[in-house]
Amino acid sequence: LVKALAGASRVDQEMIVRNASLAEDVRIAVRATPIRNNDGNITGAVAVFHDVTDAKQIEIERIENLGRLRATTELAAAVAEATQNTPDDNRPMLLAIAQRLDVEWIALATCTLDDIVEWLSMDAEGNHMSTCQFRKSEWVPFDCDQVSTQALKIEQIKTPDGVEWVNVIVCGLQRDEAIRGVLMVARSNQAFSEGDMLQLERLSVLVAPAVFTRQQLVESQHQRQAMEAHLNEAREQVDRLSRVNTLGELTAGIAHELNQPLTAIVNFTDEAH
Q1: Dist. CA 78–CA 3, nearest whole Å
Q2: What is the mean pLDDT of residues 103-125?
Q3: Residue 264 binned pLDDT confidence (cut-offs 50, 70, 90)
């Protein structure tokens, strides 16, 4: 009002109102305009107040979501590049995720069709890597059947290699409408925010196809190798049966060829007596 009375044509100002009677701060937008008489002289001013609390919150959330979406897009591009460059190895993909999310540790646990868990973990530098396989029942800090793709925050977790981590996020990886794996990240120096959890949720949707397509290829290769081994064994058995059959036919032929002269010899011998 003072600025409007001083001659400013229009004054726009945002303010925050807070007092004991308000549960939360109220954001208001103020617009002040001078009032002039017919001679153009300022005789007063008028101020209009608008409550813009909800509008400001929506704007803040929009900016935050845009930032998260941009970060997720960049992360997805890094994951896609790592997956394309090394289609037979999950480690570069995990390393890219760890560096983009600024975490100290990352792990991937996937369950095969025979409930064998394949475990891979490493730090953000790609060192101190741990890989192993074990039965699902041997280490179950969480049940894969109960985990969803929604990120779950865990205060502390002990890994299969005996390392304990705090501030852990676990997110399920879906395959064939079931959770068949989990992606885990951890950092001890800073708690995860809701934005971090939302980003990991979005990331899990992108990671699952890459992980399980590779796993499916490996399983298919193992099945093909098993079928080839079974086929080779069947071929060897057929060859053995064929050799035995051939030997039997040969033996029968020899017996037939020997039987005729032996019969003649016996007949001549009988006549000689």
Answers
A1: 53
A2: 83
A3: low
